[in-house]
Design a protein that fits this description.
2 copies of one chain form a homodimer. With 184 residues, the first copy, chain A, is an alpha+beta fold. Chain A has 2 domains: 6-40; 44-180, Nucleoside Triphosphate Pyrophosphohydrolase, CATH 3.90.79. In chain A, 18% of the residues lie in helices and 43% in strands. The N and C termini of chain A lie far apart (60 Å). Chain A has 3 helices and 10 strands, in the order E-E-E-E-E-E-E-H-E-E-E-H-H. Chain A has a 4-stranded mixed β-sheet, with helices on both faces. At the A-B interface, strand 1, strand 2, strand 3, strand 8 and helix 3 of A face strand 1, strand 2, strand 3, strand 8 and helix 3 of B.
Chain lengths: 184, 184
């Protein structure tokens, strides 16, 4: 009895506030059957905010520096957050940018959508570049303690190479956003 | 009563085969206290295997193409796998490269270590470039169904930009490995 690879059955072993965990019984392409632990996540959007025209010489981007319990300290990131139920990735990107930094963007340019770590979670992050920023008031959650860090994109990319930026989505966003930036 | 930010208490709500989930009560830097769901993961190593001298014109790297249930299909990745208990990241990188592809490497060059998605997991991936490869026999798990895909690094990076490669660790590894490669 052959069939397409995929789920045979699923059992929820943890239902949480942000994530849930299922143990899924899966048929693999060679017919093997096995159990996989899958962390279910609603997905997220993340934004590389350009403070200057990307085509200008050495444009600046806006990073945030925030406390991350998982990393046991402060990390540099690009603005990002989880999708609300039914929310379009573009709307989430605009909302998170505004809530975390106070900035609104005139334009969002899709960069890519990727799997953060597909061995154990279905989380996908939608990456955008934001241009035409205008300042406003941030609306942060009580546990969002963060500083705004305007920085030349070239310097941010140097920090990815040096290991000073070690958050996956931020590394990918900054490295890929360089395609929009002026090259000397 | 002020103190360093960090864990106040922790409750394990799921203990699994690969991952576990804790609900940790955390003090944030501004004194706020809140609960966070944290997926505990042992960490992993991943390798960008250079089939040619990185300094040669247009060097090739070795990708794998494998079925990923989380992505509901086949994805291109670099070889990678979880750390065994007490295993050094370098040893894990060498072992996973050999098990998944059959290749042994003469040299491993550390690229960086990053957090895959620090909002909800402590997983870190140690990235290496591997050079001086010699072929041998792969030793795959029953659910590791994969093809070996030798490809010029320049083409792999084009696939990151086009969205054909959408696995986070592979995107970061390939984009950063280009620093070792010959530039025209």
């Amino acid at each position: 009895m052959s069939s397409e690879p995929g789920r045979i059955s699923s059992k929820r072993v943890y239902g949480g506030k942000v994530i849930s965990v299922d143990i899924d019984t899966v048929q693999f392409p060679n017919g093997t059957i096995g159990d996989l632990e899958m962390v279910r996540h609603p997905g997220a959007s993340a934004v590389v905010p350009f403070l200057d025209l990307p085509s200008s010489p050495n444009p600046r981007v806006l990073l945030i520096r925030q406390y991350r319990y998982a990393a046991d300290g402060y990390v540099y990131e690009i603005p990002a957050g989880r999708l609300d139920a039914g929310e379009a990735p573009q709307d989430c990107a605009m909302r998170e940018l505004r809530e975390e930094t106070g900035y609104s963007a005139r334009d969002l340019i899709p960069i890519t959508t990727f799997y953060t770590t597909p061995g154990f979670t279905d989380e996908r992050i939608h990456l955008f570049a934001a241009t035409g920023l205008s300042a406003g008031e941030a609306e942060r959650e009580p546990d969002e303690i963060l500083d705004l860090v305007p920085i030349p994109l070239s310097k941010a990319i140097a920090m990815v190479h040096s290991g000073e930026i070690l958050d996956g989505k931020s590394m990918i966003g900054l490295l890929l956003a360089s395609q929009f930036a002026h090259r000397e």
